[in-house]
Give the backbone structure.
Amino acid sequence: MNRRFLVIAGIVYGLLATASVIGMNRARRGVMENASPTTQADWETWRAAAREQAEGSGPVTRRVPKSEQPPALVLLRDYYGMCLAAVLLFGSLSYLVLVFFLHGATLKPRSIES
C-alpha cells in the first residue's frame, strides 16, 4: 500500500507538472499572438484615463503605469522563465503537502502495546 501510493503520487505529479508547463506555454503563445494594434490601443486608452485621474480629475488618484506595453505581454515575454519556475515551485509544494496529508490519512493505525 505504502509503495504503491507513492508510485501513483509520483505519476500524478509528473502529469500535473507536464500540464502546468503546457498550460504556461499556451498562455504565453496566446498572449503573444493576441498582441495586436487593438490591444496596444486599448492599453494606451487606459493609460490616458489613468493619467487624467492622476491629475486629480477622477475620484481616485492613480499612478500612470510606466510600461508602454500591456502588462500581460511584458510578463509573459520578458519574465516567462520566472513565471514558469514559480508555477512549478508553488504547485510542487502544494502537491507535496496534499500527498503528505493523504498518505497520513490512508495509513493503517498501528497498535500500541504497553
